[in-house]
Amino acid sequence: MQTIISNSEDKMKKRITTLENDYSSIRAGRANPAVLDKIEVDYYGVPTKIQAMAAVSVAEARVLVIQPWDASTLNDIQKAIIASDLGINPANDGKVIRIAFPQLTEERRKELVKDVHKLAEEAKVSVRNVRRDANDKLKALKKDSTITEDDLKDGEKKIQNLTDKYCKEIDDIAGKKEKEIMSI
After folding, report:
1. Measured at the alpha carbon of residue 56, what is the angle toward residues 53 and 62, in degrees to the nearest 5?
2. How far is CA 129 from CA 4, 115, 135, in A?
3. 169: Cβ–Cβ under 8 A, 6 or more apart, which residues?
4. Is 43 left (phi over 0), alpha (psi -120 to 50) or beta?
């Protein structure tokens, strides 16, 4: 029974980590190399992440600089960024690519906040699915007479406490991200 509970907690922690990674890729008006994490460039027929092909740095608060190690990939990187759903226009000077992040409008901020809430709700659903799976496993153990009714109730209570803890943590993380977006 303890294994089921600890495995469930591990899965819930991983979901929190995934949510934080998702939030780091939301463009909040500041230059953040994490916005490029999901973009892949066709590098000699192999989809390759930009960070594996170039040095990515923050030159100013709203400017990212991408300096590829192989200058021949400059145009490929630029095309991949344009094709992505970031909605930013990279400037290529022949040596580096500069990405200037414009100031966010109030409307765009509200859209980003909606995205933040949507991701938070998806994370909560995922945590609740872990709870459901764990409870099903506990009920199967009870059915096989491996654990008692009291053990089942105790296990379900522990799983529910974990679920509440991680749902609250998701709300806290979402609240921080919302504040960050609205205060820029």
Report:
1. 145
2. 14, 21, 10
3. 16
4. beta
Determine which helix (DSSP H) or strand (DSSP E) holds 59, and give its type and residue range.
strand 54-60
pLDDT tens-place string over residues 81-126: 888 877 778 888 888 999 887 777 888 888 889 999 999 999 999 9
What b-and-e string marks burial along 102-141, b requiring 16 or more CB atoms within 10 Å of the CB? eebeeeebeebbeebeebbeebbebbeebbeebbebbeeb
| Per-residue tokens: 165 | 């803890």
pTM for this structure? 0.71
User: How many residues belong to the chain?
Assistant: 184
